């Protein structure tokens, strides 16, 4: 069972997300937060697999809340805004995914499953903005510290492949893929698969 915390300052939005998620037999909503501080406190208490995080919230915005929760849980940012600073800021803070609120119900449910499983997800509407933002900040060339296998894994991440798909593509075990992904992120100074995909796309 995938446990989820919903953080959004609009009660109607939280209710709508809850209804969508509770229609999936493998997802359970364990709490709701109306601001960033409450989101951090509830996430630390319940340790959900995924936090669905709005960006513009009172007391503590979603980007800072994401930064504080990075490493504790997976963060899926769901927002109305696709501004460059929000996209870039959320992923730099450690978000595993970024979707707009006009996303359909089926896509949201699948996004929760993907993020809970350790995969990244970026809304197609914001991919171009993300690539542009990373292109302005990334190194000019791929670091020489990546091994040949790690370059293969980065290429797969750039194509949006899941761990299982990478394992099949490279004919290696899935736990080995997870190890390579972790090393690629560490060597490139990135915090999520989504960042790695954007990095590769901007090369």
TrEMBL record:
CDD domains in alphabetical order: LuxR_C_like (cd06170), REC_NarL-like (cd17535)
Keyword DNA-binding: yes
Stretches assigned to the HTH luxR-type domain: 139-203
GO biological process: phosphorelay signal transduction system; regulation of DNA-templated transcription
Domain Response regulatory: start-end pairs: 3-116
SUPFAM superfamilies: C-terminal effector domain of the bipartite response regulators, CheY-like
A GO molecular function held by the record: DNA binding
Pfam families: GerE, Response_reg
Record key words, sorted: DNA-binding, Phosphoprotein, Transcription, Transcription regulation
Cross-referenced InterPro entries: CheY-like_superfamily (IPR011006), NreC/VraR/RcsB-like_REC (IPR058245), Sig_transdc_resp-reg_C-effctor (IPR016032), Sig_transdc_resp-reg_receiver (IPR001789), Tscrpt_reg_LuxR_C (IPR000792), WalR-like (IPR039420)
4-aspartylphosphate: residues bearing it: 54
Protein name: Response regulator transcription factor
Record organism: Herbidospora galbida
Lineage of the species this protein comes from: Bacteria, Bacillati, Actinomycetota, Actinomycetes, Streptosporangiales
